[in-house]
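Sample entry as discussed:
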Amino acid sequence: MSDVEKPKIGAYKRHLLVCTGPRCTPNGESDALFDRLGNVLKAAGLTTGEARVKRTRAGCFAACKGGPVMCVQPDGVWYYNVTPANLQRIVEEHLLGGAAVEELVFHQGPAAAD
């Protein structure tokens, strides 16, 4: 057995993955989106409790058009063109309301079919 300590992550309902790779948004829009996301989630009450949403930067999704690109797990919903206004819609309609913002969805993974 190793002496490496087992990591711990607090409970969360959803996990947002934001592509911050250089080809997705060469002018840094994805990094700005990720930074803004923390405050938006906090304002919506989604940083603590049962509804907590975790966020993670991803290096590349290999979906290099229409960025910023964000994936909502475990829902399997992939969004493109996640501008500040669209991010607000995603938080309000999807994360709080439970319905994907269909006109911003470019892919739905297997979890969305359940």
Remarks:
- The chain has two helices and five strands.
- The mean pLDDT is 91.
- The two ends are 38 Å apart (CA to CA).
